[in-house]
């Protein structure tokens, strides 16, 4: 049977986890609040207006100019999503740029692979403080056998027990290794998988990674380097899965600032609804301010979809369009593309209020090290795009 396997996001609920609207302030009980990173105590939440909710959402995501440093930003956001599509820049780099402005992307690599204050798991970058919580999810992956995907994974490992032992042995003796440095010893007829191709090495590595046996310990030309988890992760306390999920849910709530409950917006008790500075930036499609498309539309009256899998003739806007945030409003969208061969940042289209777009593109060019287009040429492009 074909594999039902798909990477699981940190929410495990797709894009429907948080959606909402809001009215007058009112206090009501909230089931959980964190002190620091690991202690949960009862907290409070308050009902807020839509205008307050917008300000809170932008501030909670550090899009108000308050972000200070890569590590602190990742800790505040909770995680960064990884994705191979890099039309402008890798999503993790673009999310940080939207908050920090110009910064050194090499700092993210240092924090991951040298200082080990961050770690990669399941296509996300996490603060090392979250490792005990993520290990609870790793244990769940090892034990789970209820869904079709979980049953397929368990069957895959049982059918390929020898291949699993080979991978672990090779990594023990020769690791860290790239996936292509391991043989495919699954045997039988190969199937083309939409992520892993016809070789089953990637599938085995991913399954063992999700279960906590393997760790990503570096990147070589963008490809993951694998090693035994015991040689990479530090020792941590054991957190029960139920407690881990409560803490992670609380961290997500605090990072998002507001959520919609029965047609009303409710704010995290630590959230600030102070005015947002007049700051403009472009957002990655994977940015948590817009990741939940329904929530973003309810907050900003801004309908946004990523159309890279939509046939060109049916796209409303473009292949990889980025929302334009100005203050606490999503005011427009643009489709920049960084041509790495020429070193130029192209603007393929822009829609909505693009009065702040030129200044944002200048900052993006400087961050990417792209060649600056002539001002007159850019003005013509913007007029056409509008």
Helix percentage: 25-40%
What's the Cα radius of gyration?
22 Å
Distance between the termini: 49 Å
What proportion strand? 15-25%
The coarse silhouette is globular
| Main pleated-sheet profile | 4 strands, antiparallel
* Widest beta sheet: strand line-up: 1-2-10-9
| Uncertain residue segments | 1-42
Supply the helix-strand structural class. alpha+beta
Helix/strand order: EEHHEHHEEHHHEHEEHEEEHEEEHH
Q: How many extended strands?
A: 14
Count of DSSP H/I helices: 12
Overall pLDDT: 86
Any key phrases for this structure?
single chain, 386 residues, alpha+beta, 12 helices, 21% strand, globular
What does this structure look like?
By secondary structure, the protein is of the alpha+beta class. The chain has helices at residues 50-60, 70-77, 91-100, 106-114, 131-143, 148-159, 161-174, 201-210, 241-256, 293-300, 357-368, 375-385; strands at residues 26-35, 39-48, 80-81, 118-121, 124-127, 177-178, 214-220, 223-228, 258-261, 264-267, 280-282, 322-326, 329-339, 344-352. Helices cover 35% and strands 21% of the residues. The strands form 4 sheets. The protein has a 4-stranded antiparallel beta sheet. Strands 11-12-13-14 form a 4-stranded antiparallel beta sheet, with helices on one face. Helix 5 packs across helix 9 (241-256).
């Amino acid at each position: 049977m074909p594999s039902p396997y798909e990477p699981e996001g940190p929410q495990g609920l797709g894009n429907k986890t948080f959606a909402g609207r809001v009215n007058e302030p009112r206090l009501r009980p909230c089931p959980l609040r964190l002190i620091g990173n690991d202690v949960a105590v009862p907290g409070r939440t308050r009902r807020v207006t839509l205008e307050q909710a917008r300000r809170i959402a932008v501030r909670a995501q550090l899009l108000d100019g308050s972000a200070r440093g890569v590590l602190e930003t990742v800790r505040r956001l909770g995680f960064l999503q990884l994705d191979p599509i890099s039309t402008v820049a890798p999503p993790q780099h673009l999310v940080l740029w939207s908050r920090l402005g110009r910064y050194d992307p090499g700092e993210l690599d240092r924090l991951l692979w040298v200082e080990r204050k961050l770690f990669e798991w399941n296509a996300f970058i996490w603060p090392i403080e979250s490792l005990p919580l993520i290990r609870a999810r790793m244990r769940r992956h090892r034990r789970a056998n209820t869904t079709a995907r979980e049953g397929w994974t368990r069957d895959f490992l049982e059918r390929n027990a020898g291949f699993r032992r080979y991978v672990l042995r090779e990594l023990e003796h020769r690791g860290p290794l790239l996936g292509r440095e391991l043989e495919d010893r699954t045997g039988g007829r190969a199937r083309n998988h939409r992520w892993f191709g016809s070789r089953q090495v990637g599938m085995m590595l991913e399954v063992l990674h999700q279960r906590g046996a393997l760790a990503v310990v570096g990147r070589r030309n963008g490809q993951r380097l694998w090693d035994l988890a015991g040689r990479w992760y530090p020792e941590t306390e054991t957190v029960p899965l139920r407690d881990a999920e409560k803490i992670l849910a609380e961290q997500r709530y605090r990072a998002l600032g507001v959520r919609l409950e029965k047609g009303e917006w409710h704010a995290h008790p630590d959230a600030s609804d102070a005015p947002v500075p007049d700051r403009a930036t472009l957002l990655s499609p994977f940015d948590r301010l817009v990741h939940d498309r329904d929530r973003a539309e309810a907050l900003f009256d801004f309908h946004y979809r990523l159309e890279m899998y939509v046939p060109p003739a049916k796209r409303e806007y473009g292949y990889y369009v980025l929302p334009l945030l100005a203050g606490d409003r999503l005011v427009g969208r643009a489709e920049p593309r960084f041509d790495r061969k020429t070193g130029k940042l192209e603007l393929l289209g822009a829609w909505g209020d693009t009065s702040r777009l030129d200044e944002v593109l200048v900052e993006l060019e400087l961050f990417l090290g792209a060649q600056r287009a002539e001002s007159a040429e850019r003005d013509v492009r913007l007029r056409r795009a509008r």
